[in-house]
Amino acid sequence: MYLDIEHINRVLYERLTSVITPTFISNHPRSMADQLSEFAIIRVARLIYDKHAYKTTTAFIDVFVRLKDSGVENTPRVCELSNTVVSLFPFSDEYFSIITPEMTFRDLEGEFSRIMIKTELIIKQ
User: Fold this and answer.
1) In terms of Cα–Cα distance, which of 88, 82, 75 is closest to 40?
2) In this structure, what are the phi and psi dihedrals at residue 100, rounded to the nearest 5 degrees?
3) Cβ-Cβ contacts under 8 Å for 8 (sequence gap 6 or more)
4) Shortest CA distance to 23 belongs to which of 7, 31, 12?
5) pTM, rounded to two decimals
6) How far apart are the C-alpha atoms of 58 and 102, rounded to whole Å?
7) Using CA atoms, how far apart are residues 2 and 113, in angstroms rounded to an integer?
């Protein structure tokens, strides 16, 4: 089995940047957070499970949307971005497949609403 994490990151990055700009891989520069109204972070787990016929791992997509000036969640934008990101999947290429994603939680992180979308990846041999 050959696992190309860089390829997975690149594919996820390309798909997400069509919806959310900027998109970061693994983390975002702290100095930029004050300037952004929304952004996404892609994280691919480095733990691979052997299912004999194939391998699996997990990817997480964190979507951040700045709260309104009043401190209230920007619910319309949160819902719009969440639905748009989830609609990008399932996806498959010659290296891996992403099956139906699931939103695992929403919470507040400082001045942002955070939506975490968990996807299972099937690594092809």
Assistant:
1) 82
2) -50, 125
3) 44, 59, 95, 96, 121
4) 12
5) 0.85
6) 11
7) 36
pLDDT digit string, tens, across residues 16-73: 999 999 999 988 767 666 688 999 999 998 777 777 777 888 999 999 999 988 888 8
Structure tokens at 53: 């016929």
Task: Please tell me the distance from the alpha carbon of residue 32 to that of residue 41, in angstroms, as a whole number.
Answer: 13
Contacting residues for 80 by C-beta, under 8 A, at least 6 apart: none
Give alpha helix (H) positions in the chain: 5-17, 75-86
Query: Which residues have CB under 8 Å from 44's CB, separation 6+?
Result: 5, 8, 9, 12, 57, 58, 59, 60, 121
CB 13 within 8 A of CB 25: yes
